[in-house]
Amino acid sequence: MKKLIQTLKNIWSIEELRSKIITTLLLILIYRLGAHIVLPGLDPNKINLAGAKSGALGLIDAFAGGAFSQASIFALGIMPYISASIFMQLMTILVPQMQKIQKDGDSGRKKINQWTRYLTVGVTMVQAGAYVAYLRQTNSSALFESYKEFFWVSTMIVLTAGTLFVMWLGEKITDKGLGNGTSLIIMVGILARLPQALMQEWDHQNVRGGGGLLIFLLEVMVLVAIIMGLIVLVQGVRKVPVQYAKQIVGNRQFGGARQFLPLKVNGAGVMPIIFAQAIMFLPTLISYSNFENKAGIAKIFADPKNGWHMIIYAVIVIAFTFLYTALIFNPKQIAEDLKRNNGFVPGVKPGQPTADYIGAIMDRITLPGAVFLAIAGILPGFAQWAGVTQGFASFFGGTSLLIMVGVILDTLQQIETQLLMRQYDGLMNTGRIQGRQATQTSVI
């Protein structure tokens, strides 16, 4: 405890770090306040969007911090920007012209960021139109009669402006605050649902009497164990030894040191789960209707407790993990960079043999990473099958928990870097906190 108090004092004593933390907290507070402002033209007392807290809409509501089910001005949250960012990232991988623009340095990145913002506006307007149709279908009684003529246009404008404002908040947090702003906004939205989910699970188990308390404690212990496992998955790397040749320039010697090339076990990050969920939700997103009334294939795709749902979901996650890793990981480029910098893998010839060697290692470690990622994706379904309420079960794995673990590790890593730069002790007595900084797949 004494070590913790001293670490907190050290953090607060660094003026730059203190300013970043205060700025981040203020911007997040603005976001959370906006998430409770209801759209104009709706009676807050008559809004009933209980169906938006389950199924595919439940995931959107989780990312929006509950704003989706509250008909807030931030109902769409940051998700349109995430969708646009994912699309632009794939384009920079698949389209050679986009790759060239991205490699132009700061000007190329600014151009791609600008295109991402324009695409965000288009995606937001499409999603806003669908959301308005959903509100008119399910909550027509909450609409003020005198405002019905203007509701469609005004809501689309307000929702688009709200998403762009949230996007701006995320960029400001990244520039002036601590950590990745977009990731922090998503994480805060997810965490905002945790207290309510815990209370619902407590009430659900408390009905059983004394045995319910024991079950609740066991569930919390299992959740902690899952979080620890995901930390291992996020931080797990395979270190490939790399040797750099000695160079003598004047009277000084450069190189000759033995280093390691870290290959991440989960090189694709959370992207395979996002893609898998998008595919699984397609049959159920034909219309914003009640998923509980779905039948047949749509029912399988909408029910995470269904055995076929888990199998299909796991297969898609594993397939996308290999596909996305192959798209973003280029062993030939790594081999060329090593050769250019007079580096080599001991016992392996430079050039194509090195590329084949690194590619083979990446293929071997990607398989267990993909399997563990698939297990993490279907854990919420197992939790619901075991009797956990749907809201609390969503924290047992899947996109929500992976994002939370990754974002927290990234933020702690930045804090530790600031402490070490100023000769303070880090956050841990042994080792270093590793985030996703080295991963090329961190879209959020």
TrEMBL record:
Pfam family, one: SecY
UniProt keyword annotations, A-Z: Cell membrane, Membrane, Protein transport, Translocation, Transmembrane, Transmembrane helix, Transport
Principal location class: membrane
SUPFAM superfamilies from the UniProt entry: Preprotein translocase SecY subunit
Subunit structure as annotated in this protein's UniProt entry: Component of the Sec protein translocase complex. Heterotrimer consisting of SecY, SecE and SecG subunits. The heterotrimers can form oligomers, although 1 heterotrimer is thought to be able to translocate proteins. Interacts with the ribosome. Interacts with SecDF, and other proteins may be involved. Interacts with SecA.
PANTHER family: SECY/SEC61-ALPHA FAMILY MEMBER
Name by which UniProt lists this protein: Protein translocase subunit SecY
Gene source species: Pinibacter soli
Lineage: Bacteria, Pseudomonadati, Bacteroidota, Chitinophagia, Chitinophagales
Gene that this sequence comes from: secY
